[in-house]
Amino acid sequence: VALNLDLPTDDSAVSLKVANYPATGTLSLPDRALSPESSLTVGEVEVLRYEPQIGASAPVEVGFEIRADSGAAKPAKMKLSPSVDPCDLAAGEPLDLQGVVPGLLPNEIGADAVKLCEAAVKAYPDVARFRYELGRALLAAGKVDQARKAIQQAADRGHVRAVFELGYLYATGTGVAADRKKANAFYAAAADKGDPYGMTSWGRALFHGYGVERDTGKGLDLLLKAASMGHTYAMNDLGAIFTEGRNGVTADQARAVAFLEAGVQRQDMYSMNLLGRNYLSGRGVEKDPKAALALFQKAIDLGQPYAPGSLARMYRDGVGVEQNVDEAQRLFELATSRGDQSGAYDRAALEMQKGDKADQAVAVRFLAFTVALDLRNELPDARATLAQFGAKPKAAALKQLRGELKSKIPLSGSVDKQLVKVARAVWEQANPRRDLF
Q: How much is the mean pLDDT over the chain?
């Protein structure tokens, strides 16, 4: 903010010295930051600015000594009261280059965030950050079309994280048709501006070759840079890469665990799920099913989409817990509702394993969800398995799914295509937390 120090003179012989530097935040001029002993001319007073410390809202005092060639120095003091807008507190994002608070993860955004950010946008229409935070709040509330509009407006006004978020929308098909190339273009643009989220997603795309020619070295470098900036998603990617050893990168399980533990310390629910898997397999740590179960349960409580499936497999196989197929079934269905295609596939498999007691329509239902949620085609067998079922269970599953829709959608093509389309529509209708992926 501009300090607007009112000096009753434009005499070039008058100068100012910083006598009392604020306890938090930074004083600066357009060409330099000021130190506790800095001096400035009368002409520079107009462009003197103060930037509060992120998250700080306590009053601060700035003191100056006004000097002239003749006469004693005169003191001047300013009291500042920086405030953090309620929208920032409700929907600010971690590591946002233009943010003013430590930020919240998507699962931490509350129900009142939309109202608070709408008020901020109305009060400060030129502040792009508030439009982006409104977009985050709307996304958490499941209002996808409104969220996309707010995020686009923020990007158009120069908010860097909003550029990344547009890439996310295209990558996941949230409110727009999924388009990996468009997503990558936004990710690359955000990464070029130093955004750690953009670095992570662009690095991931390059490392794995998602919609772009693979460049393992550049991808890994971007992920490491994002992790060094504190981005837990990059830590999770690196944890998975070093756990297994991928694309020519040598496995280093101790390093993998270090990345995941850093994520858990930052309360990242994905780190919890991944580290739990390491405790189950004993990769990089001593096997500890109880530690795995605790991490999976905490991640589930935070809304993580894949953790229910992780815990379900423990109950299905009786690993670290007493075998309980009913509990496994419940957890796989919870995973499906959160958008986990592997959880849906395992739920279908669980049904098919019942033999003569199997409800084939249920198996078809969860295979349809598997294909509908599998945007990267990571489970190609699901589509082939679905095709093997007869007309009767498919018709029953389709009828049930259509009955769950609140509004009709146009359907065409094979029964399998109709099943997948309706399953996707049923999932979207439930306003899932798609911002968690």
A: 91
